[in-house]
Amino acid sequence: MTFTIPIDNGDSVKTAEADSQRTLYPYVTGTSIVAIKYKDGVLMASDMGGSYGSTLRYKNIERMKAIGKHSLLGASGEISDFQEILRYLDELVLNDNMWDDGNSLGPKEVHNYLTRVMYNRRNKFNPLWNTLVLGGVKNGESYLGMVSMIGVSFEDNHVATGFGNHLARPILRDEWHADLSFEDGVKLLEKCMRVLLYRDRSAINKLQIAKITEEGVTVSQPYSLKTFWEFKAFNNPTAGAEGSW
Amino acid sequence: MTKQHANWSPYDNNGGTCVAIAGSDYCVIAADTRMSTGYSILSRDYSKIHNCKADKAVLSSSGFQADVKALQKVLKSRHLVYQHQHNKQMSCPAMAQLLSNTLYFKRFFPYYAFNVLGGLDEEGKGCVFTYDAVGSYEKVGYSAQGSGSTLIMPFLDNQLKSPSPLLLPAQDAITPLSEPEAVDLVKTVFASATERDIYTGDKLEIMILKADGIRTEVMELRKTLSECWQHTLSIVLIRISTLGSLCYLELCLKFSCVVNRFSFSYL
To answer: How far does A177 lie from chain B, in Å, by closest CA?
Structure first.
C-alpha cells in the first residue's frame, strides 16, 4: 500500500529539504534476531552480518548490546538507525544513573521507552527502520519483548524478527518450554539459527549468543555453526526431472 | 521534483475481534488474544482489553495495536486528570464521550482502532458503546468489532432480537438474558468466528462487569480439526460407558456437535 507523505508547508524549498531528511528505505541492514526466556533469564542470538542490499558488506557487526544493568537490546533492520537508538538509550541510562537513587531502569521500562520512540517517529513519518528485541531480568523476573518500526509491541516467552518470525518461531512454539537450562536454550537457539542460515540469504555463518541474567550481560565470542550440505537430494537435484528446477 | 511515495505504511492491521453484551445488571466484554501481521502470528497471548478503572468501564479494541496502546494511554492519563479535577471517577457514559472526542481529535491521521466500550451506567444497568475509527459512536445493547465482526454481528442480531431504534417510546436494547447465558453466547460466537476468520483464535479473554466487581475468564479456542473430533469421540465414549443406552448414543452424537461449539473448559 503506497502512502503519500502528507506534508504541505506552502514553502516549496522547505518541503524539498524536509523530504530529503526522511527515511525512505533502509541501506545497511541486519537480518533476524531470535530470543527466548530460559531458567535464569533471557538468551538472544544474532549473526554478525550487515548487508548493503544484496551485497554482504559488513561481517563484524554486533547487533546485540547491553543497556544499563538489566537489559539486552537486539536489533534487525537499518544499522545506522540502531546506532541512533543506542545513542538515545545512552542518554536515558545516563540520566537514570545521575539520579543516583539506588533505582535503575528495568527491561519493562526500556521496552516502553523504545515503543514510544518508535511510535513517535512513525507519527512524524520518519521511522527508525528497525525491529527491536528487548530482553532482561530484574528482581528475578525475566522479560522479553519486541517493537516493530511502526510501534507495534508485545512481550512473549520467545520472539524473533524478520525471517526468524517465519522460520524460527514455529520451532520455538513446538520446542520451547518453561525453565529451559542454559545448555538446552543454546541448543534450541542454534537449531533456529541453523535453519535461518540454510534458508535466509542475508544470514551469515558467524553468530553470537548473548545471555542476560540477574548477574548481568555476557555476549559470547563469535562462532560458526556446523552445517551439512551432503543431503542426497541436493547432490544431483535435477536427477528426477531433467530441465525443471 | 515529483512528490516521493513512501514505500512503507504507517498502519498495519493486527487483527482480532472484540465483542460486548449489555445486561440488566452486568456487562460482558470479550476479545480473542491473537495478534497477527499479514499472514504471520506475532503473539498468541496478547490482551486487547483495557480496564479504564473508571467506575467499571472496560475498553476492548482491535485494529492497529500501536495506535490502540497509544489510545489506551491517552484515556488513562485523561481519566487521571479528571479524577484530580472532579474528585470522583468517570462514569461509563462520560468515558464514552471522551473516547469519541479523542478519536475525532486525530480525524486527519486517525487511530486505526475499532473500539467497543462496555460498562455499567449510573443506574447500574449494563451499557455498550460501539465506535468507528474516527469517533462516531452509539449506545447499543451489544456489539462486535474487528476482523470477525462480520461473522458475529448477524448472529448476535438474531439471538438478541434487538428492538428497532425507530420505535417510540425508545426501548432499551439491553438483553434480558442472564449473565451465564450471555457468557455462554459469547463463547459460542467466538468459537464460530475462530472457524472461519484466520485472524481470530488462540484464546478468548472474557471480562464480566457487575456492581460488586470484575471477573475474568479465559477460554482456549479451537486449534485443529483433529482436536474437534477427539472431543466428540470422548463425549460419546463416556456416555456409552456410563449409561450403555443406544438412544442416548444417538442423542449424544447430535449433542456433541453443538456442545463442541460451547466452552471446552468443562469437557
So the answer is: 15
B69-79 pLDDT, tens per residue?
999 999 999 99
Q: Tell me the ipTM for this assembly.
A: 0.86
Can A23 be counted among the known catalytic residues? yes
Options A4, A15, A23, A238, the catalytic residue: A23
Question: Does B38 contact chain A (CB < 8 Å)?
Answer: no
Q: Is A150 close to B7, i.e. CB distance below 8 A?
A: no
Cβ contacts below 8 Å, chain A against chain B, sum to: 71
Handedness of CA B78, B82, B88, B92 (dihedral sign): negative
**Residue B219: φ, ψ to 5°:** -130, 140
Measured in whole angstroms, the distance separating CA B248 from the mean position of its chain's CA atoms is 36
Helix (H, G, I), strand (E, B) or coil at B261: coil
Place of cell 543497556: A67
DSSP-assigned letters across all residues of A63-109: -EEEETTTEEEEEEEEHHHHHHHHHHHHHHHHHHHHH-SS----HHH
Q: Measured between CB atoms, which of B6, B42, B45 is closest to A3? A: B6
Q: Which residues of A touch B11 (CB under 8 A)?
A: 150
Cβ separation A165–B11 shorter than 8 A: no
d(CA A196, CA A204): 9
Closest to B48 in 3D by CA, of B116, B137, B107 = B116
Given a contact cutoff of 8 angstroms between Cβ atoms, the answer to whether A207 and A48 are in contact is: yes
CA distance A77 to B125: 51
At B154-171, the pLDDT tens digits run 999 999 987 777 888 877
Cell digits of residue B4: 516521493
Domains and CATH numbers, chain A: 28-224 (3.60.20.10)
How confident is residue A245, by pLDDT bands cut at 50, 70 and 90?
Answer: low
Q: Which amino acid is at B194?
A: T
User: Cβ contact (<8 Å) for B43 and A154?
Assistant: yes
Indicate the SS3 state at residue B32: strand
Query: Searching chain A, which residue's CA lies closest to the CA of residue B12?
Result: A150
